[in-house]
C-alpha cells in the first residue's frame, strides 16, 4: 500500500489530502487570511508559512510523514510541459521560486512537496501542470502572425476525467478520442487524441463563464480599450465578465434560483452559456473529424442538471455524454502519482531553463 500526500495551494488556502492507494484517508483546507498573504511580496515568499501550516496539521492528526511513499503538488506555471507527472528537482524549484513565468499560488505546489519529500528520501512530483501544452502545430495558428495560440487550460481535472471515461469505455486512454469540457469559474475545453490534449478552446477564446467574458467581438473590444485603461479592461474580461456582467453574480446556484422564480433574463443568459459551451464542443469535434468516443462534462457546474441537460441536448448527436461533476484536484494528483509509483506511467524529468 502506498501513502501519498497531495497538496493544492490556492490564493488564500492550501488544500491537502492523504491517500492510501486509491482510498482517501482524510483531506482538509487550511485557510490563509488575506492579511496574512499580503505580508509577502512574492508568492514564493509564502513557502515557509504554508509549509509550517501543513506540518502542524499533520502533527495534529497524528500522521507520521515517514509513512509516506511520495508527495505530489499542484503543477505551477512553468515553460510549456508535457502531460502527466514530472519529478520535482532543484532546477524546477529554482525556476518556480526565482524565475516564475507568472506569479501564481500553484507555483508553491512543487516547492512545498520537495521540501517535505527530500528529507524523507522519497520522490516529489507535480502532475498535469497548468502549463501542459501538447497542441499540434496546426492548432497554434491564430490568424495573426504576431500571436501564437497557447494552451492554458484546466489540464489536471480534464485529463483525469478523460482517463476515467476511457476506463469506463473499456479502452486505453491513448486509443480514445474525447472532448472534455471543464465548467467552473472559468470554462475551458480540450480534445484528446492519442493520449494528448492536441487542441483546446481556452477561457478567453470560447464560452463565457460565471466570471469571464470568453470570446467577444474583436472590433467592439478594441473600441472599449480606447475608452478604458488596461487594468479595467483585463478586469472586464477576467473577473467582471460572464454571469457577473449580465446578472451581477458569479453563483450558478443563485442564477438557477432566479430562473425557478420566473426570471426570464436569467434563463436567457444562463442558457446562452450552455449554448456557447455546446458550440465549443462541436468545434473541437471537428479536430478529430467527428470520430468522438465520448463528450465529457466536468467541473463544479457539472453538478447542475439544468446546465448539463441543455448542453447534452445539443451535443449528444456527436457522441455519448459522460457527466463527471466536481474538480477532484487532490484525487487527480494522488491517483496520477499512484500510477507512476506502480509503474503504469513514467514520470518526466524536468530539464528546462
UniProtKB/TrEMBL annotation:
One of its GO terms (biological process) is acetate metabolic process. The keyword DNA repair does not apply. It is an enzyme of class 2 (transferase). Gene3D superfamilies: 3.30.420.40. It catalyses: butanoate + ATP = butanoyl phosphate + ADP. Its EC number is 2.7.2.7. GO terms for molecular function: acetate kinase activity; ATP binding; butyrate kinase activity. It is found in: Cytoplasm. GO terms for cellular component: cytoplasm. Keywords: ATP-binding, Cytoplasm, Kinase, Nucleotide-binding, Transferase. Its main location: cytoplasm. NCBIfam families: butyr_kinase, PRK03011.1-5. Belongs to the acetokinase family. PANTHER family: ACETATE KINASE (PTHR21060), BUTYRATE KINASE 2-RELATED (PTHR21060:SF3). This is Probable butyrate kinase. The lineage of its organism: Bacteria, Bacillati, Bacillota, Clostridia, Eubacteriales.
Amino acid at each position: 500500500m502506498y501513502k501519498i500526500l497531495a497538496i493544492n495551494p490556492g490564493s488564500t488556502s492550501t488544500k491537502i489530502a492523504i491517500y492510501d492507494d486509491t482510498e482517501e484517508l482524510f483531506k482538509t483546507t487550511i485557510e490563509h487570511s488575506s492579511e496574512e498573504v499580503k505580508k509577502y511580496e512574492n508568492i514564493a515568499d509564502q513557502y515557509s508559512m504554508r509549509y509550517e501550516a501543513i506540518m502542524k496539521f499533520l502533527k495534529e492528526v497524528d500522521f507520521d510523514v515517514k509513512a509516506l511513499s511520495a508527495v505530489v503538488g499542484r503543477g505551477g506555471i512553468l515553460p510549456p510541459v508535457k502531460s502527466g507527472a514530472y519529478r520535482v528537482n532543484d532546477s524546477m524549484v529554482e525556476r518556480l521560486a526565482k524565475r516564475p513565468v507568472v506569479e501564481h499560488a500553484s507555483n508553491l505546489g512543487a516547492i512545498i512537496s520537495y521540501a517535505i519529500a527530500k528529507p524523507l528520501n522519497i520522490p516529489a512530483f507535480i502532475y498535469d501542470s497548468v502549463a501542459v501544452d501538447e497542441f499540434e502545430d496546426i492548432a497554434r495558428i491564430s490568424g495573426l502572425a504576431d500571436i501564437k495560440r497557447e494552451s492554458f487550460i484546466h489540464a489536471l481535472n480534464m485529463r483525469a476525467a478523460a482517463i476515467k471515461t476511457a476506463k469506463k469505455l473499456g479502452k486505453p486512454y491513448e486509443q480514445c478520442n474525447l472532448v472534455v469540457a471543464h465548467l467552473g469559474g472559468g470554462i475551458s475545453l480540450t480534445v484528446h487524441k492519442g493520449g494528448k490534449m492536441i487542441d483546446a478552446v481556452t477561457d478567453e477564446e470560447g464560452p463565457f463563464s460565471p466570471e469571464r467574458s470568453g470570446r467577444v467581438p474583436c472590433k467592439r473590444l478594441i473600441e472599449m480599450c480606447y475608452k478604458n485603461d488596461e487594468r479595467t479592461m483585463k478586469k472586464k474580461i477576467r473577473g467582471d465578465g460572464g454571469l457577473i456582467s449580465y446578472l451581477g453574480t458569479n453563483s450558478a446556484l443563485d442564477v438557477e434560483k432566479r430562473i425557478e422564480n420566473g426570471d426570464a433574463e436569467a434563463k436567457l443568459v444562463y442558457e446562452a452559456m450552455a449554448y456557447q459551451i455546446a458550440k465549443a464542443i462541436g468545434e473541437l469535434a471537428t479536430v478529430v473529424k467527428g470520430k468522438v468516443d465520448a463528450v465529457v462534462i466536468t467541473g463544479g457546474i457539472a453538478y447542475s442538471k439544468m446546465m448539463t441537460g441543455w448542453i447534452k441536448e445539443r451535443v449528444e448527436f456527436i457522441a455519448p455524454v459522460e457527466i463527471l461533476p466536481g474538480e477532484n484536484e487532490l484525487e487527480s494528483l494522488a491517483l496520477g502519482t499512484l500510477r507512476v509509483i506502480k509503474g503504469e506511467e513514467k514520470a518526466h524529468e524536468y530539464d528546462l531553463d
